[in-house]
Queue: 3 jobs
Job 1
Amino acid sequence: MRPLRPVPDEPPALHERAIDNLRFIRETMESATSFTAVSGLGEISMGVIALGAAALAARQPNVERWLAVWIGAAVLAFVSCALLVARKARTAHLPLLAGPGRKAVLSFAPPIITGALLTAILSRAGTVEAIPGLWLLLYGTGVITGGAFSVRVLPVMGFCFMLLGALALVAPGEWQNPLMALGFGGLHLGFGAVIARRYGG
């Protein structure tokens, strides 16, 4: 009976190549998947806050206070939604700022930052009436671009926001607050319910 020969160790180069291949496969799979931690409950919370803001803003004596109510509501809604998205991602063991999550955030952020800067400029110039249309359009743009890396219903929601934004740009002044309520309130509630039902909360 011939003695068994010891199995030679795997060459280091082959081992390193296998690790590189596995890393490439993992990164490719991450980039191909969607960010599904978008929270339907977060969208609903934004809608509720927006409807409350619309009711409060309608009672303000001037456009400066009207705008301050909406800006405060926007900050509160962002924080509320971000916390619910983080909770959903943690529950589903999904990374927030890696892979498709990072792409969604980086795609969503530029239109929102642009909207914030233009809001300051338009407010200083005394052309507050253009702000509702601007917000709806740019928010819709951000939802479409960020939604390209997330659940399929988000780009549809973004397109609806853009339609309302286009309408707000040409609508009379008394329509602005109702259009904001319909967009940031109604669309968030409706699409948030769809996302919560289809994508687990």
Job 2
Amino acid sequence: MAGKAIFLTGLPGSGKSCYIDSLQTDAVIFDDYKAHAIDDNPSFDHGRRLKELLEVLRAGKSCIISDIDFCRTEAQREAESLLRAAVADVTIEWWCFENDPHRCEQNVLQRAKSYRRDVRAELTNIHQYSSVYAMPAGAKILQVWRPSET
């Protein structure tokens, strides 16, 4: 029996990494899957951890694969197609954060205060991806993360 692939997507600042960190799961985590892809190619099959991902699924284990690029329908279809061709009987689920660019911008700017980092790329990605964000039919919809007021 093949494993389960849970694709987790949302805009920068939506809470993907925080959400993953909060889960109590034995699923193998592939956070920011397309980061540092082979030859900087954003295709799913150029992910540096593709071989490991396929091994995990073939072994019947669950995994969580997150990346902002999965906001795009083309990226969703490409990933599903590759996994279905490579792993017989794989189960695929989509978990998507709301498309709330305003809240995500606030989160990115708040995070920058704490970590003193440049946020221009994240803000650009919020605007680019929010306009093309498509959630697959049947996706589990998650609320954008909101920092606790302390």
Job 3
Amino acid sequence: MAKNTQTFRASVGVVVIDSDGMVLAFERADEPGQWQLPQGGLGFDEEPLAAARRELWEETGLGDDEVRLLAEHPEWLVYELPRYSSKHGRGQAQKWFLFELTMATTIDLQRAQSDEFQDWKWTTLEGLRDETIEFRRGVYSRLLEHFAGYLRSGK
């Protein structure tokens, strides 16, 4: 039976900023040099905000007591995966959230529940958009537009 490749996986994404509006970016462990924001699938009957908090904890080790919700993107943002990738059907439809660190926190990926990321850095969302894999750039541009008032600009 052929796999249905026309589906879009429901998922969430998270932007974490510091008090200066710098964005916390993560380097993928399976693709060194590829930087991105935390994201992941929406579980059955799971609300998007709850999924965003769960994904943030699982992928980065940042807990609810270390971040506060600042904003939510009003739309579901969609991207298509390259044709050679069948990991999640045709692509993903994502609900995005913006969080701010609430305290001086040491980012420790050893606390994460997964090994998806191997490193982290502070950057601008504009800079991250320009260096992330091409199929994510459109979504990151939309995030940059919507969350601009919270973010430091420039590269």
